[in-house]
Specification:
With 165 residues, the protein is mainly beta. The protein has two helices and nine strands. The strands form two sheets. A six-stranded antiparallel beta barrel has the order 1-4-6-9-8-7. A two-stranded antiparallel sheet has the order 2-3. 19% of the residues are buried.
């Protein structure tokens, strides 16, 4: 049809109209950080109710996201460093241009280059607060030619939950 009408398969207004539909499901406040440096892992501070990073790495992106298990990739048991672990792939969808670290007056914010190995933490999720207990490691940050939202494929180590909450 694109050849008959003289335009591509998507109407130019599509992204403007479709963006609020996906954003309606973005109910989790997340942040994305570079991985910690050295051997120390982030620690959960139950008084502050947040992750404390040993080298105080600043977040590269913060905002609202939609999180869901990747249904075509079930939790898998793996052996790593002679320990049995279980991981599950999770999809994190976000609007790359709505970065809370940039003043709203400057939106659309320049897109951040989210990289493999960066860490996603859920700061607040009213619908399922248990997601706040996991660290998600970005496995696949690649976008698309129609980059009106970004889908990150992340790994969640199912044994890395915050204990005592």
């Amino acid at each position: 049809m694109g050849l008959l009408t003289g335009r591509g398969t998507l109407d130019p207004r599509y992204f403007r109209h479709a963006t609020p539909v996906i954003e309606g499901d973005m109910t989790a406040l997340i942040e994305i950080r570079r991985p910690y440096e050295g051997e120390e892992e982030p620690l959960w501070d139950s008084e502050l109710e947040e992750w404390i990073y040993p080298n105080d790495l600043s977040p590269v992106w913060k905002g609202m996201a939609r999180i869901q298990p990747n249904k075509d990739w079930r939790a898998r048991n793996r052996e790593w460093a002679l320990e049995n672990t279980a991981e599950h792939a999770v999809r994190v969808q976000l609007n790359i241009y709505k970065n809370f670290l940039v003043p709203k007056s400057e939106w659309p914010a320049p897109p951040v280059d989210i990289e493999h190995g960066q860490v996603v933490t859920v700061l607040r999720n009213p619908n399922d607060p248990i997601l706040e207990n996991f660290l998600f490691t970005v496995r696949n940050p690649i976008g698309a030619t129609d980059n009106w939202h970004r889908t990150l494929l992340c790994d969640a180590n199912l044994g890395s939950r915050v204990s005592g909450d």
